[in-house]
Amino acid sequence: MQAYLFVHFREKTTPDGEQVYFGLSRDGFHWEAVNGGRPVLWAYYGDKGVRDFTIVRSKKDGKFYIFATDLSLSYGMRSQYHGSWEEIGRNGSKCFSVWESENLTDWSEQRLVKLGDDDFGCLWAPDILYDGKNEDYLLHWSSSHRSNDYGNKAIYYARTKDFQTFSRPEVLYRKADCGVIDSAVYEEDGRYYMFVKSERNPEKIILLAAEQAAGPYERVEAFDESMKDVESGLYEAPTAVRLEDGRWCLFLDYYGVPGAGQGYVPFVADSLKSGRFVRSDEAFHFPYGFKHGTILTITMEEYERMKAFDWSHQGYW
User: Fold this and answer.
1) 17-28 b/e with 16+ CB inside 10 Å = b?
2) Could you list the residue ranges that cross the membrane (predicted)?
3) CA atoms of 269 and 21, how far apart (whole Å)
């Protein structure tokens, strides 16, 4: 029997919002907060705020790695970025924040990993995919770039085997008519499926598929039908998990209202190949609005250990 860990942040304009939060579930439908809904890890370096998380269990040594966007909007937007999304896009952090652990309870201090060069704009929304054919990982993210004067964002990737050294970034996916952000890629039956937010035409989540982890990716048009009743311009940050019964749960981050009303809404499908997802709000429960994160499948022993752990020392010496 498996359980689930959701790594996320909270939509708050106080320093504790853009930090690392954990949620746990025994079934993928009913979620509970860890540490009483308080942060379990804090960012002390870089922008001192983090968001847009991914977590992975290394096949090499079993260690866990959290990667996050190194960015404070609750305070940095007002001060160092002067209220400007364009300034963030050009001059936001060129690093990801990283934590690592051997047991999901004892975590290293935050470190910063720079990818690419200064031609990149801010590095947004990392996600990690294991490429079984190459026996390495694709760390992928969205960025603007000097090559198009920091215009439409594309999805980039770098390869790594150890989460310490990374290859030179390359383009994973670029949409011809607009920018794309928030990539999430999964393997099913030897094919790779990428959820990504299209910024226009449509201004919604789209689904792509490829035979190789690094592409090329092409649209799965059946998924567009699943999104027909989803309002344009109000959802981002797709993340998905495969349940024990083989079904897939897709979560989309709703940001159509200010503050606490934001958070993930769920969709369920029998397979990624079908592209047919059904919105299923009533089947799920969250204690509050989980924001832009990733779900990791864990064992019941890991679930029970995390439940029993005393997280109250987090944020204190």
Assistant:
1) bbbbbbbbbeeb
2) none
3) 27
